[in-house]
Known about the structure:
Helix content: 25-40%
Radius of gyration: 27 Å
Number of strands: 19
Largest sheet: 8 strands, mixed
Number of helices: 12
Distance between the termini: 29 Å
Amino acid sequence: MDNRTHAADVDAGETATVxxxxxxxxDLGGIAFLIIRDKTGKLQVKFEKDEMDDDLVxxxxxxxxxxxVAVTGPVEEEPRAPTGxxxxxxxxxxxxxxxxxxxxxxxxxxxxxxxxxxxNRTLDLRKPEVKAIFEIRSEILRSVREYFRSVGSTEINxxxxxxxxxxxxxxxxxxxxxxxxxxxxxxxxxxKQLMVGSGLERVFEIGPIFxxxxxxxxxxxxxxxxxxxxxxxxxxxxxxxxCEGTLKAAYEGVAENCAEELELLGYxxxxxxxxxxxxxxxxxxxxxxxATGELDEQLVWGDDxxxxxxxxxxxxxxxxxxxxxWPSEIKPFYIQDYDDDPQLSKGFDLMHPRMELVSxxxxxxxxxxxxxxxxxxxxxxxxxxxYTRMFKYGMPPHAGWAYGVERLVMTMLDLGNIREAVLFPRxxxxxxx
Length: 433
């Protein structure tokens, strides 16, 4: 429809064709109104029954809510209309009739449970508040890509079907690949490391990962989207600088370009993180957690941080922060340990007060030490020959990290469930739609 005008772009005095969904019909007797909705907003269509063709009135007022229509006619000023304008139809075409029995109410007047919303995601996203989440998600990814380019990073795409898991273990989805066993990739970790040893040096990727974890919580998914970064010739401190810059760029982009969406979601005071994020060592973190008195049992060196510990520390810090210098035994084999203290790794996490957002660190780039790390974690280096072999040919020092996009959206917008931040979630119970 080349001559289509969006609802928000019509002007008084012009003749326009507006196409969209029937949001509401109000019949007041001699006069009636149809509210048409598209991605830009709503427009009132006025039917003066005695002055219009009966077939036109019958078509316009007989159509069911959420049907798709195209309405053509002059646009007039009307102060009482929601947008100050209304269209008086010369013609109306029903492009797609909707079933009168809808599984949920896109107007939002009747609430629907999350499973019902996810089962009918197309209808769900007709609600402006839900659509706003995904407009913001899109802006986050645009801003992040722009930031990566500003720091000299090249976008790459790595395989999602692999012969071995990234980190070993059992959290893999097996598939049959032309008679061979293969797996859905848990992470682009090993491939992005190989790229920093190439002529690219500094790379990023935004793409899906698959983890067969048995979690069934409001903050875990089995298919997620990750923002991955890896750079040659940087250490873990410099990688944290880029990580922090990326997050701030995402918030800045949303603040600058998503004012309408933030207003719809009730964010009158959306704040962009400004100050440098605190960088606590793991040892400092457990000391501060223990000092809060919020845990039933005190944490000791080597403990991973349970959810209640993350919450206690997040409340104490009050904003984003890093945890650095994790025990080596907690972090994966590819994280480099300190030469003067091999029990301590150069791994870090970026935390939101609610949860972990990022895991990263400086990588082990020395072949012998890398192979030794495999063996210490019970992995067979021979299964990862495509990866380890490249470390014999001049692999530079490097570091990187990975964000979960859904967690970033969830924490930025204070969503109650991570499934609200993904169009079609995949979890233990949900494989369709």
